[in-house]
Design a protein that fits this description.
The chain is of the alpha/beta class. It has four domains: 4-164, Beta-Lactamase, CATH 3.30.450; 169-362, 3-Layer(aba) Sandwich (Rossmann fold); 369-443, Helicase, Ruva Protein, domain 3 (Orthogonal Bundle); 448-502, no CATH class. The protein has helices at 53-62, 81-87, 95-102, 108-121, 166-189, 200-213, 229-238, 260-265, 282-285, 301-313, 339-345, 350-356, 373-388, 397-405, 411-425, 448-466, 477-481, 485-494, and strands at 4-7, 37-40, 66-70, 76-79, 125-132, 138-149, 155-164, 219-222, 247-251, 290-294, 315-317, 324-326, 330-335, 359-362, 394-395, 430-431. Strands 4-3-7-6-5 form a five-stranded antiparallel β-sheet, with helices on both faces. Strands 9-10-13-8-14 form a five-stranded parallel β-sheet. A two-stranded antiparallel ribbon has the order 1-2. The longest helix is centred in the middle third of the chain and has 24 residues, at 166-189. The radius of gyration is 33 Å and the shape is extended. The N and C termini lie far apart (98 Å).
């Protein structure tokens, strides 16, 4: 369809509605809705059909999408009813300021750039951006800016549209969330094809896995970092009656404390600042399957309460909603922390601990199953040699002895990294390991976490001794250590320090 321009009758509209980009006007009636010219010959079949400015306004007002007309200098000539009702009254300001007042901060620069490209090069553009309504809520819109030409091909005006795509974006977001669990599961499954090891300690754990897998009991998996707790959780799921349903994994320590509740249970649009869409939580994604909560000891207190309710009542509510959702999910949790000590320190709920500690499983540290090290080394060599296209036939005896005598504070994860690095650097059929990679942890036979705890205990005891057992006050140990007295009290209880022995008369 070809558009041409013709003189039309004049009409007045309020100054507050005359700016899409906010060019100032006086209080006098505007000379014309579309200035001197407007759309003509809207239908090619009737070249003599000319429409008045009032008719054009009525047509555009009947359109449910937002529409507006801009002059070549960016002045808003007309904005239709749908846009006026959505935006409400907007103060007369400059074009850029107006856009910045209605477009979401994260989207406005991209939209301004698109409009600039259109007007600079005389082209049509599209961009997605959130627009603020008169009640302060944002919705997603598809923005389009189209040039209007006269009979000589000159751009005389711009037509802008905004199409509401909020529901489409919300549906897309939900689909992405539902696919997230599958992508994570595929990625994690690629980490190990099987549990490797024949040691008595490991076989005892696997025997218990076989027994608990076909039940619906909540399992608490404990063990040091890197021992393969998630692998054990996946083995339970794989051998359970839920094996054909999702396995959803959440690392509670990797999610900000103020977002973990939303991550687990989802949230409604507008539930909090930044909640622009409804979000499906991990419990809903795991429906019918298994939810694995790693590092459960890091959950904040309010999330512990919500989790306790799910385990007791089998139901939950999204953040910002009062609608109850039933949860058909088996929960498996894991931690490397001493939860009884955390209970004593007041950082973990005792009732939640007893609810999750139905069937405990402790995964042994790698130094406690040294007979499995050779099997794991061969397994990882085969895996990474295949990935890198290398042919490795032999393992240097000296390197194998070093690997078997090393305490492995990082457990299987550390072993895996050392083997991968060594395979990458291997230039022959003989596999060897650089001794320097295994020297750091030899300084202490204790795990890194245990070593750090011991150092922390020594520092607190030294401060208590210097402050004669006093915790609070300007002369107390808390001030000396630079922490709140309540925090220091919690650490003293967790580390089982008897501060009374530092008292003096």
């Amino acid at each position: 369809m070809n558009y041409m321009v013709s003189d039309v009758e004049t009409a007045s509209i309020p100054a507050g509605e005359m700016h899409e980009f906010g060019v100032a006007h006086s209080d006098q009636p505007v000379a014309s809705i579309l200035r001197a010219q407007v759309f003509t010959r809207l239908l090619e079949a009737d070249s003599d059909a000319y429409m008045s400015a009032r008719q054009v306004e009525q047509v555009m007002d009947a359109v449910p999408q937002h529409m507006f007309i801009l002059e070549p200098d960016g002045t808003l000539s007309f904005i239709n009813r749908a846009a006026r009702e959505y935006l409400g009254s907007i103060a007369t300001i400059t074009p850029t300021e107006r856009l910045r007042s209605i477009i979401h901060l994260e989207d406005v620069d991209e939209l301004l750039s698109a409009y600039h490209d259109a007007m600079t090069h005389g082209i049509s553009v599209e961009a997605e951006a959130r627009v603020r309504s008169k009640n302060g809520q944002y919705r997603w819109f598809l923005h389009q800016l189209l040039p209007l030409h006269d009979e000589n091909g000159q751009i005389v005006r711009w037509c802008g549209t905004r199409i509401d795509i909020e529901d489409l974006k919300g549906s897309k977001e939900q689909t992405q969330q539902e696919n997230l669990a599958l992508r994570e599961e595929i990625a994690a499954m690629a980490m190990f094809e099987e549990i490797v090891g024949t040691s008595p300690r490991l076989q005892a754990v696997l025997a218990r896995v076989t027994k608990v897998a076909h039940t619906e009991s909540t399992v608490l998996i404990t063990g040091e970092t890197g021992t393969g707790k998630e692998l054990i959780a996946r083995a339970i799921h794989k051998h359970s009656n839920r094996a054909n349903r999702p396995f959803v994994s959440v690392n509670c320590a990797a999610i900000p404390r103020d977002l973990i509740t939303s991550e687990l249970f989802g949230h409604e649009k507008g539930a909090f600042t930044g909640a622009l869409q409804r979000r499906v939580g991990r419990f809903e994604l795991a429906e019918g399957g298994t939810l694995f909560l790693d590092e459960i000891g890091e959950l904040p207190a309010e999330t512990q309460v919500a989790l306790l309710r799910v385990l007791q009542e089998r139901e939950f509510q999204r953040v910002g909603s009062n609608q109850t959702i039933r949860a058909n999910v088996r929960v498996i949790v894991a931690t490397h922390r001493d939860l009884p000590a955390a209970i004593e320190a007041g950082t973990f709920r005792a009732d939640l601990y007893y609810r999750i500690n139905v069937f405990p499983l402790e995964v042994p540290a790698l130094r406690d199953r040294k007979e499995d090290i050779r099997l794991l080394v061969e397994y990882f060599i085969d895996r990474y040699a295949h990935k890198t296209g290398k042919r490795i036939r032999n393992i240097e005896k000296r390197s194998l002895d070093r690997l078997q005598s090393y305490p492995w504070p990082g457990n299987i994860r550390e072993l895996q990294n050392v083997i991968e690095r060594s395979v990458i650097l291997c230039d022959s059929e003989n596999f060897s390991v650089d001794d320097s990679w295994l020297s750091i942890a030899q300084r202490s036979s204790r795990p890194l976490a245990q070593e750090m705890t011991s150092q922390e205990k020594e520092l607190i005891e030294a401060a208590l001794a210097e402050c004669k057992g006093r915790v609070s006050g300007p002369a107390g140990a808390a001030a000396k250590l630079g922490m709140p007295p309540s925090t220091l009290d919690s650490k003293i209880r967790a580390l089982k320090i008897d501060k009374r022995r530092f008292y003096t008369n």
